[in-house]
Amino acid sequence: MAKYLAQIIVMGGQVIGRAFARALKQEYQASQEAAKRAGGGKAGASRVEANFKTGMTLEEAKEILNVDKLEPELVQKNYDHLFKVNDKTKGGSFYLQSKVYRAKERLDQEMKHETTKQGPSKENIM
């Protein structure tokens, strides 16, 4: 009986080990693909870093806040609405509210990156 129990434990460990190794391999491939889609180089690295910090991609953040373009007014309007709607004191979900907050944070980082990439505008120079 003990022999069979030991075999079951060893086989279970092997199955779990293979699944863990496969998951790590898939995660590595996904991160490589994300870096390629982000544009590669320094821009891609900064986008991947922003994704890592906030825990979501730019596309996911746009989807959560229901925006197509990075327009600060629209982003702020949608954020305010969704944040208020999901307020826990009004029966909302703290989880959804935190996702909305992280989405806004991610889009803010992207908009800041876009403005620094474009350089100072003519209005700021004069």
From TrEMBL:
Segments of skewed composition (Polar residues): 117-126
Cellular location(s): Mitochondrion inner membrane
Topology relative to the membrane: Peripheral membrane protein
Principal location listed in the UniProt entry: mitochondrion
Any Pfam family: Pam16
A biological process from GO: protein import into mitochondrial matrix
Domain of life: Eukaryota
Any GO CC annotation of this UniProt entry: TIM23 mitochondrial import inner membrane translocase complex
Amino acid composition bias (Basic and acidic residues), ranges on this chain: 106-116
Keywords: Membrane, Mitochondrion, Mitochondrion inner membrane, Protein transport, Translocation, Transport
Region (Disordered): 106-126
Classification via PANTHER family: MITOCHONDRIA ASSOCIATED GRANULOCYTE MACROPHAGE CSF SIGNALING MOLECULE, MITOCHONDRIAL IMPORT INNER MEMBRANE TRANSLOCASE SUBUNIT TIM16
Family as reported in the entry's similarity comment: Belongs to the TIM16/PAM16 family.
Record's protein name: Uncharacterized protein
Organism in which the protein naturally occurs: Daphnia pulex
